[in-house]
Structure formats: C-alpha cells, structure tokens
Amino acid sequence: MKIHPRLESDRQLSAFTLVELLAVVVIIATLAALVIPSVRTVIERGGQVKCTNNLRQLSAAYLMNAGDNGGNLLGGYRDGSAWTQILKEQGYFTFVNTPDSAMTQWRGCNFCPGEKVHHGWGDYGPNSGLNQHRLSQVKKPSAKVMICEARTPALPAQQEKYGTEWRGTFNFNPPGLNGWLSSMPAWPFRHGNVILMSFFDGHVEARTRASLEPVSERFELFGDIFSTAW
Questions:
Q1: How much is the CA Rg of the chain, to the nearest whole Å?
Q2: Count: domains in the chain
Q3: Is residue 34 assigned to a domain?
C-alpha cells in the first residue's frame, strides 16, 4: 500500500527524537525536585497543626482533672497507671490503643502524627514529675511547660521493623542529674525540626533546637515545680 507523500511527512514529524525524549525527562525530574520538598513541607505543617490540636485537648483535660482534684497535678506515672490512662478512665477524653503490628488502630489526641512508633499510652509527657504536685506551685503559667512531646529509645524489634531508634512515650525526665534536660538527642523534633509544648496558661509553642540549646533556657521552661527527680 502506497502512503501519500504528505501523510508520510506528517508521520515523520510526529516522532520523538532521543534528544527530545531526554529533554522531557530532564524537565519532569526538575519539576519533581521542586515539588517534592513543597509536598514534604505541607505534610510536616499538617502534622504540626494536628499535634498542636492534640496538645490543646490534652491540656484542657489535664487542667480539668487538676480542678476536680483540689489543684493536684497528675504525674506521668502514678500507682501503676500512666497519666493518659487515668484521664481516659475518668472520662476526660477517649482513645484507642488496640495493639497491632502496624499500629493502625491507635487513635486519639495522645498520639503524635509525627512519631513513627507510638507508645500504647501516648507520645506526650506532663511536666509534673512522678510525685504529686499542685497547680499553685506554678509561678509563671505563661512561661512554664505543662505538657511536651516526649520520646524514648525504641525496642530492638521496633528499630529493625520501622527503621528508627526512637518511639513516643507518655513521660519524660525532669531537670536533674538523670539528664533529660541536659542532653538533646532524645528530644522529639518531629515537625520540621521543632518540638511542640503546651504551657500552663493553655497556649502551645513550637520551639526550635536552637532556642533550646542553652541548658539554662530548658530549666527555665521546665523547672520550679519539682521536689525530686524521677
């Protein structure tokens, strides 16, 4: 079958040359390189917003519990129970932590969306130590941390499965010789390299690593309501 010369010419013009194909690949790769960081930033910002809302809900429940108990603050772990467990049992908020290998069933404001491996009782710790303390001991509510994102070393099996050396936890060490405030590595900078913390007046702040580098700054944020370290 003989093809009309004009049709043959159109077919030849519609074909891609190798150079054109490579140019298209380079353009797509360049656009992807520009878009992917932006998408990552959006995801991190979304996680930060969710985490901020989590802290606000936890703070409200924590303060309501203190108000219902004569101003006494819950410690991170008391009488064999985590603070989030106590708040759940007393009806201040609800969550689901049915164990499963992928942790897809763990839902609630006590689980940070930026943490790869969660603790069954949550990823946030209260700044009230192990022993009983009172709300009246907090002298500067707007400058003193009430609840903070917290982290602890992951179990060996979790490290192997999820590729991370850390997991969330429901408590953290206060200032003292056992060193949580003296050492930065365990601090969970999850959302675009910031750590979120709520204060006793109810507001939430995102603090950078640089803003927490002076140990004196950390003591100022977390100190003055402890009688002993734990």
A1: 25
A2: 1
A3: yes
In a domain? residue 227: no
Burial class (CB in 10 A: 0-12, 13-18, 19+), 65: middle
Indicate the pTM of the whole model: 0.75
Tell whether 126 is covered by a domain. yes
List pLDDT tens digits, range 171-222: 765 434 345 556 666 678 888 788 999 999 999 999 988 888 887 788 788 8
| Residue 229 maps to a domain | no
